[in-house]
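Assess this today:

___
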Amino acid sequence: MIIIDNALQAREAEGRPIGVAIVGAGFMGRGLINQITNSVPGMRVSVVVNRTLEKAEAALREAGVRDIRAVTDGSSVDKAVAAGAVAITQDFRAATGASTVDAVVEATGAVEYGCHVVVEAIAERKDIVLMNAEVDGTVGPILGKRAKAGGVIITGCDGDQPGVQMNLVRFVRGLGLRPLVCGNIKGLQDEYRTPTTQAAFAAKWGQDPYMVTSFADGTKVSFEQAIVANATGMTVERRGMRGADHAGHVDELTTAYDVEELERLGGVVDYVVGAKPGPGVFVLAVHDDPKQRHYLNLYKLGEGPLYSFYTPYHLCHFEVPNTVARAVLFRDAALEPLGAPTVEVVAVAKTNLAEGTVIDGLGGYCTYGVAERADVTAGENLLPIGVAEGCRVLRFIPKDSVLTYDDVELPAGRLVDRLRAEQAAELPTPALTM
């Protein structure tokens, strides 16, 4: 965002940097800490929250921070910041309760824990940036409603594919075109990958095997495209999206879709495997003005009716400070649900699940996620994968079967389940005519 750099420079000159709390000092959190500390004027890391303080401290030291102070409450965060230090804590409430924190970045990828962080941040009137598509894709609509009522911004992030897609959507709409396909370019899709098969790759890049597996088995892309659908009002053509292999350029996809069907559905989210240039995102759009279609053809975008726009990269944590600045300085969300969800991510058995099995985490051995229409999810009582972790299977579930709420026993007392109930009551999903 071009105007952000000048706005941040002004904050730096005024000595009023935006204070950021980063929750989660994992792979992405470490990168973001380094980026803000060393490359973003007008912004500072006030506090890092992590269950293991040693990891929070190590992330800050990697970024060159030397004055690091362990704290337990918000006032102690403020005292550390006033002294020029960065605070670390195990308690996210210390971050949300600190006056020196303007925005909270949730970067854990954990659903239940992330729900607690977001709810508390809203209560403390902190803007929230989600590097956590899993929370967004599970309860994002109701959290968005709560945030609006509380006068705060909750947003997905620049740099991750959903945020990059929404930036492209807004660019395309600004040109006068109507997006009908929002797409994600993947290099691999194999529903049966596990933390065992992905262990070597995870170790090479210093990442968590479960998180890496969620990229490979389709769970992550399903969450990513679900939150794009919920931010645009689009849907999916079918359960799991089309997800075609495509070795050519994304421009060639302009002939791969039935425009009348896209129009009838109100646009779709999708992904392709192997397309160039990747990894990136694309938007396919139409223009209703024949005069402007003449100019688009002159400018080498073809004759239509679909025109291709793409971004050939997504730079993850490098771009997240832009989201923080957009939220805090301009009250602008990079990505937020429009209202009731249009697409959910449901749990599918990755292997035969015996009665009594306790389902493990996202990117694990038990389930993978696929995108499904929200009205179908509600109508068939399907189990969102964001609530599947910790559920006990009540009957034998064959491999590749979609799980339902009737198939499992939920863990007691979870916030995510209360939020799901609140979301269903306050933001009911309208049926989509097929």
In short: The chain is about 40% helix and 20% strand. Residues 199 and 402 are 26 Å apart (CA to CA). The mean pLDDT is 96.
